[in-house]
Specification:
Elements (H helix, E strand, L loop, with lengths): L2 E7 L51 H4 L6 H12 L3 E7 L2 H8 L20 E7 L2 H15 L22 E5 L11 H4 L6 H10 L1 E10 L4 E2 L2 E4 L13 E5 L2 E5 L6 E5 L6 E2 L2 E2 L11 E12 L5 E12 L1 E6 L4 E5 L2 E5 L3 E14 L1
Parallel strand pairs: 1-2, 1-3, 3-4
Antiparallel strand pairs: 5-6, 5-18, 7-10, 7-16, 8-9, 8-15, 10-13, 11-12, 13-14, 15-18, 16-17
Length: 356
């Protein structure tokens, strides 16, 4: 029978330097740019031009603090125990505590000395998430644990990847509402939300492999990112940036933009009533990117009007180079500001979730 670890992330008020090397487990860590609050309501303190995950602010800590096991966690633990699994519940207050859990997924020692996941391990991980940012915080630590440095790239690593197959995780959503109108990643992927169903997926299921977006700041994206902002009245603000997808240039930075969506899954496929991403697929080995450009056109009578032109491209990598000032963005539901060039690239099938 399996050993199962039920991992919950705690708030930053529990200990200095919470999950993410300086921020809270509600999202991550300190960086050079400041974030405010995630669109999904999760706390967000600092994010990320240094490549770290967003952290939690004390004002929002109660929203995601999970020191005492939540009811879904207890129910999932009971369902697992009833099936004979050996269950360990852990509340992590720092990256080090997350890493201690992930160490249980390590494989045997390798001759090259690299830390590598166990492809046939008997320990399975369930991540109880109050937000997509929390799930990303765990995946980010998995990447940092198992991705080899370029100078020590092993011969058995796939040619289209920079890291091995990460161990599958089960997702236990703690917020039922996120499966409704404001869909979290678990809802988009069709993952179970009932604790007993999650337990069944862990014990009886198979891994569903998914693509992972890494970026040159050292962080990861599971769902996607949306760049752009609106004023206090809700009117979109214009900004400029050069956006490239592989060899295709969606905009050279000389024209105003209203939004740029970078999609691994479909969380940012639409903006109000505008479809940005046509068909984002988290398992097709490509990232879909779209920019929304306001274009002035004249009618037959010479009247001016503005229409929104959406340009799309798909590929393995995307880069965004701001041309002026800071560009606000949402990344897996957490706000930040982009101040310099940022590149994302796809890691096909790098991570996985347990499904029945």
């Amino acid at each position: 029978m399996y050993d199962v670890v039920l991992l919950t992330l705690s708030s930053e008020r529990d200990a200095p330097g919470g999950c993410g090397s300086g921020g809270a487990c509600c999202g991550g860590a300190t960086g050079t740019d400041t974030a405010v609050k995630g669109a999904d309501g999760a706390a967000a303190g600092t994010a990320t031009d240094a490549g770290t995950d967003p952290g939690g602010t004390p004002g929002d800590a109660d929203r995601c603090a999970t020191d005492r096991p939540r009811v879904p966690v207890l129910a999932c633990a009971d369902a697992l125990t009833a099936r004979g699994a050996r269950v360990q519940t852990v509340t992590a207050r720092s990256d080090a505590e997350i890493d201690a859990v992930l160490a249980q997924l390590d494989g045997p020692a390798r001759p090259d000395g690299l830390t590598w996941p166990d492809s046939d391990g008997k320990t399975r991980l369930v991540v109880a998430t109050a937000s997509d940012a929390q799930l990303r915080a765990v995946l980010r630590r998995l990447v940092r644990r198992y991705a080899p440095p370029p100078s020590r790239r092993p011969a058995d690593l796939r040619g289209d990847r920079t890291l091995p197959d990460l161990p599958p995780v089960a997702v236990l959503p703690l917020d039922p509402a996120r499966g409704g109108t404001h869909r979290d990643l678990a809802a988009q992927l069709g993952l179970p939300r009932d604790p007993a169903a999650v337990a069944a997926a862990v014990l009886d299921g198979t891994p569903r492999r998914l693509d992972l977006l890494r970026n040159d700041g050292g962080s990861v994206t599971l769902d996607g990112a949306l760049l752009g902002a609106a004023d206090d009245a809700g009117r979109p603000l214009h900004w400029r940036a050069r956006v490239e997808v592989d060899d295709a240039i969606l905009t050279d930075g000389d024209e105003p933009l209203l939004a740029c969506a970078i999609g691994n899954a479909g969380g940012y496929a639409s903006l109000d009533d505008v479809t940005l991403l046509a068909a984002p697929d988290p398992a097709d080995g490509q990232v879909e990117v779209a920019v929304a450009v306001p274009v002035v056109v004249r009618s037959a009578l010479g009247r001016k009007r503005v229409r929104l032109e959406v340009r799309r491209a798909r590929g393995r990598a995307v880069s965004v180079l701001p041309r002026e000032g800071k560009v606000p963005y949402l990344d897996d539901g957490v706000e930040g500001e982009l101040t310099r060039k940022r590149s994302w690239w796809i890691e096909p099938g790098a991570w996985a979730v347990w499904v029945v």
